[in-house]
Structure formats: structure tokens, C-alpha cells
User: Fold these one by one.
Assistant:
Number 1:
Amino acid sequence: MSLANQLDQIFVFLQHWIEGFFPQWLQPGVGALIAVIGIVATFPAIFAVTTVLERKGLGRIQNRLGPNRVGPLGILQPVADGIKSLTKEDIVPRSADGVVHFLAPVVLVVAIFLGYAVLPVGRNMVLMNMDAGLLFFFAIGASTELSIFMAGWSSRNKYSLLGALRAVAQMISYEVPLLLSSVVAVMMTGSLSTVKIVEAQGGFTGIFPHWYVFTPWGFAGFILFVIAALAETNRSPFDLPEGESELVAGYFTEYSGFKFALFFLGEYLGMLSIAGFAITLFLGGWGAPFSFLGFMPSWAWFFLKLFAAIFFFIWLRGTLPRLRQDQLMNFAWKFMLPMTLLNLLVAGAWRFLGDGWSRWVICSLVLLFAYVLLGRVLMRHQHLGPRSYRYAE
């Protein structure tokens, strides 16, 4: 076996080597346990790195330093934050429902971790290669809405309840286009398996890959998926459930200490999970971007793409202002939903129009026309102009 293949499968070989120390009847369970430990160790570690990168990146965008006190260049700030969260007093409101208040962050983190089970991070590196992996991912992801409502309702706080209702309304609204935008990848692959979706994008034409994002329907589906993913994970400019200016901190206003840290962890793990899913559906998963770079391990390409997505999310947070609630809902139902439904029709037309440039031109023009038309309809009653400021005399 070549050195490149050995590096590509090094974690698979390590798992099999550890399994060899156990009886044969125990090996499947031990292998699953090792994979779970790998997921639970890797992605929270990326979360810790992401918090530093985000605070440093936002500081750079806003012309300030960011974390710079704990460790060299502030890189040990996540350690300090973790210690503070573990030692900070856990305050529960007297009128709160104690059991539900405690279970809400636990349910959120557990549900998000379950979504990683069907996420292929490399060749032969997926915990559960399910035939219906895509349905499992979205079914598990839907349970996060329950945990957020549990947090807001159990706190017995009007700000928390209002933040939870806003969060649930937002997540349900954007979950529809999120799911529909991913269906185009299923239509082209003919399978709901995340592994088969990645493998279907594994070919090359010359040096260029057959990623779905390089087609009109794939590019539109990818953009729609990313926008819906930002709303699903409460990232800017869709971070209305945590609107500090009007809701203090949203559904986790009454949380402190380690339980607040679990919500913080769950939000970032959800962002990493859905970014990894976008990579799987539209960016070739673990595949290399050029044929001559295939010597690099598949898992390395997946994590490089994941960090690129993280930097994109950080850039958006430091650039775009927060939307209003009415703008958020109008955008979901009047623009995102019609575009995703139309993209399904375009993907079907792409499949039956045959090879050649005609399908590129037809599909691109249909999507571009719909984009312009829906944009004009949405902006028809928006009177945009220079903002005037008035001050008290």
C-alpha cells in the first residue's frame, strides 16, 4: 500500500489495531465506541479553536485586538473560559421548572452530537453509513427546536419565552428551504446516503472535480442551503433569538455557569455540523479540489473545507447587520421557499435535457430570472433611502 493511502486510512488502521486487543464478539462495539470518542474529542476541540479565531477575527474587522491576555497571543482563552464556566455559580430562578431547565441544554448538545453520526469526514470514516443518512440528520436536527423551547418556557421569564418563540418560528421557517435545497443532491445521486452523495462527486474532468456546486442548480442549492443554515444556527445576520438590544440574551437569559456553556457549545457544534453537511452535499465532501492534489488525505481536505466555512461565517458576522423579524420571515417564505421549489424543477430539467451547453444556458437563465423577479417583488414596498437622524434638543 502506498504512503498516501496509509496516511489517508491512518485513523481507520488505528481503530482496527485497538479493536484487535479485544475478543471478536466485542470488536464492533469497541469500534463504535472509538469512533464516538473521536467525534466527541475532535469537534469540541475545533469549537475551542473557533472561539479564538472568531474573537480575533472580529477584533481585526472592528480594529481592536481581541483576546490577548491568556497564553501566547491569547490562544489559551478557551481554557480560561472553560474553567470559569465550570466554577461559576449555577443560578436557577425560584419559579423555574428545575427539571426541564436542566434538561434543555443537555438535549440540545446530545441531539447535535447525534447528527455527526452520519457525517463522513473522510474515506471510510463515518460512524453510521445509513441508507437514509440525510433523513436521519434532518430528523435529529429538528429536535433542537424542542430543547430551545424547553429552555425558554422553563425559565419563567418573559424575555426567555419571547426569545424561544422567535427562535422556534425562525428555525421552522428556514428548516423548510434547508431541507428542500438539499433534495437536488439526492435527485442527482439517487440515494439518501451521505457517503454515496460524496462518492457521486468523486470524478474529474481534466483537473476539475464533479462537485455539484459547479452546476447551475448546485450553485443555487448551495447558496440557499448556506443562507438557511445561518438562520438555523442563529448566526449573523439571523441572530434574532439572542437579540441583546431587546431580549437581553434570548432563550438562555436565565442560564449561567456550565449550562450556559452547553448552549454556547451546542450553537457552535451545530454550525460545524451543518457546515460539514453543506460540504458533503455540494463541495465533494472529502474530495480534493483538483485531481493533482489527490495525494493528500481525504480527512485533511474535509477539515480544510470546514475551516474555510468557519472563516466565512466569521466574516459574515463582522460584516452584516442584524435583520428585523418581519424581514427575516418575509425572506424565508417569499424568497427562499419559491427559489428552492424552482431549483427542484431546474434540477429535474437538467437531468432530462441531455448533455451540451443548452441545459447550462436554460437552467442558468431560469434561475437568474426567478432571482431578479422575486427580488423585485420583495423590494417593491421597501422605501430605501438615506437615513436621517434626529437628536433631542
Number 2:
Amino acid sequence: MKLARLIWRNAIRNRRRTILTIASIAISIFLIGTLQAVLTSLYSTGNPSAQGDLRVVVHRSTSITQPLPEYYKQRIESVPGVKYVVGVQWFGGQYIDASNFFANFAADSENFLKVYDDYQVPADEASAWENERTAALVGKKLMEKYHWKIGQTITLKGTIFPINPELTIRAVYTDPSDSSQEQALYFHWDYFNELLGEANTVGTFTVKVDDAQDVPRVMDAIDAMFRNTAAETKTETEQAFALSFVSMLGNVRLLLTAISAAVVFTILLVAGNTMAMSIRERTGEVAVLKTLGFRRNMILTLLLGESVAIALLGGILGGVGAKLIYAFIVATYSSAKFMGFFLALLIAWLVGAGAWMLFAGPAARGGMLKVIRLIATIVGGLIGFAVGFGFYNAIGYITNLGGFLGHFTVTMEAVGLCLAIATLVGIVSGLWPALRASRISIAEALRFVG
């Protein structure tokens, strides 16, 4: 206990330097936590849902942008092991203007809820959607975002297709296993095909298989059926199909890992410089400690413990802070956007306090420096508020779009990684200065002037 108290007192003896170092490490660790959240969100897109392991997706082998003939559905249904087939066409329409973008599809309503049985829809609403030509099925989170009501009529402006379907919202679905999927709209493919002039094409077919063990055989059978035709197919599991969109972005994992490595290297430079300065200033004190009987290992523990304590505190603030802040944004953005004001106030206070600390000291108590300190604090607080409010709205907007970042969260594994990186930074940055100081002789330490 006494050792820990001594380590802490040494760590905060120069409070301004310690606070700024902790803040630098915290911001860097926050960035690493954010990058890990992006990776988690991107690759969780391919995680199968409760029934997703029974679904496969059939698309054109040459490109997913090229459609398939609608009559393929009947042929796919004839494959042994196939239970249900539904045709789905990405529509990509806009609601009012380009800023109101969300996923919207034309789908075969007959078997849709049998194939996507993760979606829960009240029986009366499901019946209304299936039996009305212009009806729309909408996710709960999308309904909340635009404050839509059952029975409301909306118009989607076509951006890919030259049509503007008018739709009436008749049903709302929820997905208990993954609420991020509740941000899409589905309307009848028959209505879409009619408006388009009977093109009779479908973007993809989603197939529900009877048994998971039959999935590989069914996939091979479907592709073999259409081999050497004008529209050959490629059949993938739902998970593989989702991850194929991530692969279009390139090697995202390598890129984000490289950025994280650069951030860690920067933290090492900052923390290493801080510890070198701190230990060099106390070289004389090391001589006194040795004179009082402190052994080399005890001095090494004191100095290295100080480095680890500072880095770990920064890691806790950055890692845990990232988890709490992103969870707060995701939870409040769609239902209580005004809460962003409080996050902005918190960031404004932190930035203002940091600006105030920069001008700490006796010289800041009077004269022009006092005025400069006050102005810097106010300006810093205003900048912090603007950045915090903008950050809240930007992250909230992106995560509520769904898609690749629909699962945006900092996991406990990511927090653990952040703390491990912070601990490693503390050890590496403080090890050499602490070793050098613990090994210096009493006479040399007393003669040191630095």
C-alpha cells in the first residue's frame, strides 16, 4: 500500500505534465478503440442470424449489379432441399431528398416472411402487407427515425430505376436478434415490375434450405443448373454474400491495423519523452533514496510503476470512455437526440479545463497572462462544444443508417486490448529510463546536473 501511494505521489508531482500526458494517451487509445469498433462492425455484417445459416443467396456470377431472369425462381424451387425462394431487388430510392437515404428493396411478398423468419410481424399487419399491391413493410427503427405511422403514404424517388413508387405503410417488423436490421423498407416486386414495364428481372434470390447439412449440396445444384446459360449464377451463404461487400472496400483489416500501429508508436514517443524528462529531473533524488537504503529493484519498481500508472490511467479513460460514449450515442440518437447537448457540454468542459491547465502556474495569476488564460479557456470550451456536438451527430447519423456500421460498438475485447496496449506502452516507455536511473551510482547521481 505504501509503495502504491509513493508511486502515485511521484506521478502527480508535476500535475500539468501528468494530466497532459494522460490526455494524450487517452485520445490515442480512444482512436484505437474506435478503429476496433469499425472492424467489429464491418465483419459482424457477415455473422449469421438465428436462421441465417439456412439461407443462401443466388446472384449473377459476373456481377451482383446484373439481374437474373425472374423465371429462375421456379427452377430453383425444384432443387431437392429447397424450402422457400424469394426474389429481392435493391431499389435504392430516396425519401424526399438525398439526405434521407435508407435501404429499400422490392421483394416477393409471398414467401418473404417465411424466408426471413427472424423478422417478427403481427399477423394482421403481415396479412395486410401481403395482400395489398402498394403496401410497404418497414423496420421499427426506420419508423421511429422518420416518425411514420401505420397507414401513412410515402413516395420513393428512383435513383437507379426511372420510377417513383407510392407506398402505404401496412406492417412494421422487428428483429429481436439484431435490431440494426430494423432500418429497411420492403415493397412488392410485382408492383415494381409493373411500374418498370414488365422487365421480369430480379437482383438476387434468397433461398431457405430445409437442413443446414444440405446447404453445400443445394448451392452446387443451383449453380450447376444454370451453368453455360446466358445468365450463370453464383450461390453463396448469406454470411459470405454479406462479407463480399466488405471485401470490395479492399484490405480494410490491414489498413486499420497499420493505423493502429502508427498510433501506438506515437503514444510511445509521447510517453517515453515524458518519463525520460521526469526521471532525469529526479536523478538527485535517486541518490538520496539509495543512501536511505532503497535497493535497485525497489527504485526500478517505483519509477516503472509511475510510467505504467500514467499510461494505464490514460488507457482506462480512452478505452472505457470509447465504449461508454459510443454506446450513449447509439442508444440516444434515434429517440432522444437532445442528449447530444450534454455530451457536447462534457467535451467542452474537458477541453476548457485542458486549456486552463496549460496556463497553470504563478505567472498566470495576474497581468496579461491571466487574460490570455481566460480567453484560451473560453475559446477552448466553445471549440470543444462544437466538436462534441458535431461528433455526436456524425456518429449517430452513420450508425443509424445501418449497413456496414449497423453493429457499431466497442466490445469488451476491444477495451481489454486498449488496456493491454496502454500497459505495454507504460512498460516500454519507462523501462530504459528506469533501468538507467536504478543502476546509477550514488556519487554519479549527486554530481548529475540536468
Number 3:
Amino acid sequence: MLKLRPAIVIESEPAGASRERAAHTPAVHPREQRLVVELAAGGAAAGPRQAIADVTLVGRAEVGDEVIVNVQALDVGLGSGGFDVVHVNLTRGLSGDGAPGAHVMKLNYTSLQHAVEPVDDHDLQVPVARPVAVLALHGQLASVAWAYAQARPEGRLGYVQTAGGALPGGHSRTVAALRERGLLAGQITAGPAFGGEAEAITTAGGLHHGLRALGWDAAVCGPGPGIIGSGSWLGHGGMAALDSAHVALALGCPTTLVARMSSSDERPRHRAISHHTLTVLDLLLEPVTVALPAGMRSPVGVDLRAGLRAAFGGAAVPERASDGPDFARPVRITRHDWRRAGVDLPAYAASGLVAETMGRGPAEDPLFFGAALAGGSVLAELVGEAEQESARADSRERGDI
């Protein structure tokens, strides 16, 4: 059930305050307004509480406003949602005017359903033939975008946010920072995800619009901040990567999967190469490209089959392994195009971008950041290969070859 409580706003920050922020302060998405609220008597916890308002849904809040907040995420201690969320502003109300042309519902069948104008194109042009990198986690986005920009400084990389995350697109400070620095050309939220600069009905529609209509050279596709999870093999937001990869392949996009890897995750199922990634690689209907960081020890090493046996044998068996896919069939994993790419962890750590996952930085978890940086480098490689193939196709049409 919804856990809603009345509260009073005791501190408010202007929405999208990133333009005025100090250099060391995290960027703020233009849709997000940070607040401090105090619950009314009988609330879930005494004292000030951090809160977030999505200004395009509930409007701006000011000090003294009476609001209703959803306290569930903060009360259960979610790492990515550790704040209250404004449900309605009782002082200012909701105008409900919406945007001109809005006719498709997001958050449909809930009390927060609202109309948006979708960007899904009327004309389908396939193959799209522009590369897509599929993320396992939102925490990989900054590393992928930074590495891509190092290889292709003039490239236009866009982001399509899919299902699988815990928070709306408007709450991504990573996106705000990347947009501020010109490392992302745009953000589209697709399917049930909402809160981006543009809204798409489907992931396919979002990718097609970004790569065709907006002219992105490549796209990153994956869940928003936080990840939904149950600890089971299939019940987690990482499975959105399976759907996204299939969509990208169906559109004729060279597709790379950014592997979720870790040197030091406390959970055995996520150490080395995560079961999230291996499950997707096992279930994919067609092969994709998978990037590995060169010069880093990983369970796939030179001999992928032996590495998988080592990763999933003996003491390293992931939790609930008996209920999961049979990774003793490594042919399902080895059919993919595994590539190694050089990575520069010190340079990324010094970039000022997000460099933390579950409280660990590049020094504590080099494999996590190395795998994401490798994904960005390989995505840039795929763009180069796609351009070469396009040039060859043009030459064939002209009869040059």
C-alpha cells in the first residue's frame, strides 16, 4: 500500500539549480527540486527529512508549503531512493494543464498517470545501422559516455532510459552532469520510464527517434537510477538489458552489452562477471559484442570456458545457483563477440564525473569501472566500423567497387 504522510517544506532549492552550483556540488536534473521537509505529528520519523519534487508532475514547492510525501523509500533505507517523494502540494495544488499535443499516458492506471506527447516516429527506416550500447546499471552510464567521448570527441551520443530502474529520468544527476558537459546529446525515457527530455512509447521508438530523427551517432540504452531487484535470477531490473538488446538487434543496430563486473562486491553472485550479465548473454537469441577491460584480471581471461567454470564452481557458486540457468553450457556465452579494450581508470577518476558504485570508487572496484569504460571504447569502435560499412555500401551503389 502507498505510505503517504503530510509534511511541511522547511527548505527548498530552485529546480534545476545545477547552473548555479559550486563545482563540487552534484548536478541537478532540470526536473528535480530538492527539499527538506518535516513530517506532521505522528509521522514516520521525527526531524528533517530529505525530499524530492518532480516539478513537471507536482509543480514547484516553497518553504511553508503543505505537501503529501511518499515516505516508503526512505523508511526502508533504499540506497538509490533514500528520500521522500512529493505526491501532491496541498498549498499550490496541481494545474493539470499538461503539454500541448500530449495524448499518451505514462504511469497509466495509477493516480499519477499523466499525458505526454510521444516522439515515436511515424516512418520506420530500418536497418538503422548505428551502434547501441546496452547497460546493466545506470551507474555504468557516466563511464561509458566518458570513454566514448575520449575516442570520438565530436560524436553525438544519446541516452534512451528503459524500464528496470527505481527512479524517474528527471532524478538522474548523472544525466544532468553529462548533459552539462556535452557528453550526452539527449535523454529519451521509453516505455514505463518517464521524466526525460522527450518521451517514447517503446524502447524501439526511442532508439529509432534518437538515431534517425535526432541524428545521434550512437545510443546508450538502459535503466534509470537504482535497480529493481528480488535476488532471484530473473526478477531484477538487469533483465531489461535482454529486451533492449533484442530491440537494438531488430532495428539493425550493431549492439554491445556493457558487462556488469566487480572486483569486490560482497555478494558472490555479482563478483567477477555478474549473474545479471551472464543470464542475459545466455538467453539472447542472437550474438552481441561484449567488452572486457584489457590488462585486468577477470573470470573470462584468455580461456572463456575455463574462466566460467572457475567463476561458477566450488566456493564461487552464486547464491541460488541451483535455481538458475545452466552456465555449464558455456557455448551459449562464448558465441558472443568478446573484445578487449584499453581503459584509463586514473583519468576517469580525475574527470569529476560519478566515480562510485555502492560506496566503492575505481580504486576499490576497478573491474566495475573498467568494464564500463571498455564498453564506451568498444561502442566507439562499432561506430567507426559502421561508418566504414556505410562508405563501402555507397561505393557499391556508385559502382566504384
Number 4:
Amino acid sequence: MSRHEPSAVRDKGILLVLGFVGFVTSFGAHVVAVNLPVYAKQVGAGLALIGALIAVYDFAEIFAKPVFGWIADRRGLKATMLVGIAFFSLASLAYLFVPPRMLIVIRFLQGLGAAALSITSAALVAEYFKERRGTAFGMYNALKGLGYILGPTIGGAIVWKLNFSMIFVASFAAGAIAFCFSLLLPGTSARSELADDDDFSPRQIIVALRQPRLAGWYGVIVVNMFMVGILFGFLPIYVNSLGYDQLKNGFVVAAATTSYLLIQPLAGYLADRVNPVWVVLVGLILSVLSIAVIPFTSGTVLLCAVVMGGVGVGSVWTNTDTVVSNIAEERHLAATLGAAGSFKELGDMLGPLCIGVLSQFWGLRLGFLVCAILGVFGIAVLRTSRN
């Protein structure tokens, strides 16, 4: 991607590459997760192990994202991303050469690689698009989010036609393609411009985590991920409780996923033209209303509530990236986005767990309502954190 190419064409190419890199991590997570019941039958595993295999991917990312963000700030965003892609790809391929019961180790290693490539690709969006970050993050997150749709679809087809192990070949192939295209990306700031070697210490991770102006935003991120968890994780359970067949169930869930993906470019575009805080605030309000209404609806009203929820969480998701990158100190950009990514993974892991426990003992309606209350808390945090 030569710097002599027309700017618009170059920018689109950069976003497509970075979006595909982001796609690799969401694809890698879901292409495996949706097929774990098949794996469980093959090795005689129970539901607890399936849950652990899903959680370990997020668990690795929680701790690894700030570390790789710090490394990227010191050693270069592009170089760190390439290492992360290579690590993820090789970890995926390694499943073919280990006993099937080693899958939990493979998933942990995949999570480590995903942490590096995910956080550095997001940081590169902020680096390349300093003037139009909202629009850029909207497109990036929409492309990344395709993995949530294509992962289960492609993974299911692969397992149906071939076998479970071949989904790791697909993950390797996606990573290899992303690696090759990433080599074409323009260079970024040299390491010496980011910081001095004397400042090379893990304390920078703590700096990213403890920035006062970002504390409230980290809270908003966690709350939004709680709502993402209940919308995408527990909506199918509620729809099933209505007696809908799998076709109708899939249609309702697809409405949530599609609205979540499609709103992100528009939400990013709006954030570039108005204060992104207002876009996030509207998104939180829509999410709260949706989650509060869903357990009392069916039919067309349910579909409308689901679409509203997808629009809400998608608007918050993409614009928290924008706000955090705008607030972050330039020399700690990747580390700060890494910290924000860890809070995303924390909410993604703990949210469904907490709502699941509540629903188990007190029913789905209370689970949905508790998530709505958490959303109200997120709105309160946001109102006290505006800059």
C-alpha cells in the first residue's frame, strides 16, 4: 500500500486489512465454540468442560491484552500484531499434532495470540485514523464482528462435511491470510519516538489501568458487555421458552446480531460529527429499554425490542473504543486499549455467568431485569465521567 496511492483508496485498504485481522480473533473464538458439543461427544466431556473451553479463551485475553498493549507501545504496533497473528495461527495448527484432550491448552494459546492481534489492530486503527476515529472504528468493528456470524456458519459446515479438527486448519488459514496482507500495511511511529528505553517497565500497564479519566469508561465497557452477554447468550433461551422452533429462534437472534453489526459504521460516523459521549449515552438507554422489555414480549414486539438492543450495544461497543483512544496518552495508546480490552473480556466472561446464576434460581425475567438495572448503573457512571 504505497503512500502515493490516492488517500481514500489507501485508507479503505488499510481498514479492510485491519478489519480482517480483527475478524481472525472473533472467528477463531466462535468457529470452535459452536462445535464444542461435537468435541464433547468425541472425548466424553461434560458441560463443565465445554464452559471451561469457552471461558479459557477470554481468560487468556483478560491478562494478555494489557501486556501486549504495553509491548506494542514499546516495540511497535505492526511488529507486535504480526507476532500475535503468527502465534495464533501456529497455536491453531498445533491441535492437529496433540491429543484431543489438550484442546484446553490450545484454546489458551489461541487466546494469547488473539489478545496480541486484537489489541494491536485496534490501536493501529487509532494510529492511522487520528482525524476520523469514530468512522474508522465503526467499520473496523463491523468487519471484526462478521466473525460472530461466519464463525458458527463456516465451522458447522466444516464439521458436517469433514471433522472437528479441520476447523483449526480454517483458523490457521485465516491467520495466514491476515499475516500476508498485514505485511503491506504502512509503518507506524518508531519505538524510539514512543518512549525511552529507561522507561521500559511493566509500570506502564498500571498507568494505563489507573488513568482517572478512563475509570468511568472502563465501568461503561463492563456494563455494556454484561448486556451483550444477556442479549446474545440468553436471548435464544428466552425465545426457546416461548415455544419457537429453531428456525424462528435463529431468525430472532440473527436480527440482534445483524442490527449490532450494521449500526457500528453509522454510530462511528455520528460520533465524528457530535460528541461520541452522547452516542454512547443513547446506546446505553436503548440497551436498557431493550433488555427490560424483552422478557415480557413475543412476536413482532419482541423482534423490535431485539433490534433496539442490537443497535444499543453496537453503538456503545464501537464508540467506547473511540473515546478511550481519544483520552489515552499517545505513548500509552496500545496499553490503554489493551486495558479496555481486558475489561471487555471481563464483562463478557462474568456477565453471562452472573445472569445465568440469577436465571437458574429466579427465572429468566429477573435475569433480564438485573441486566437492565446494570445498564442504568452504566448510564449513571457515564454521566459522572463525561469530559
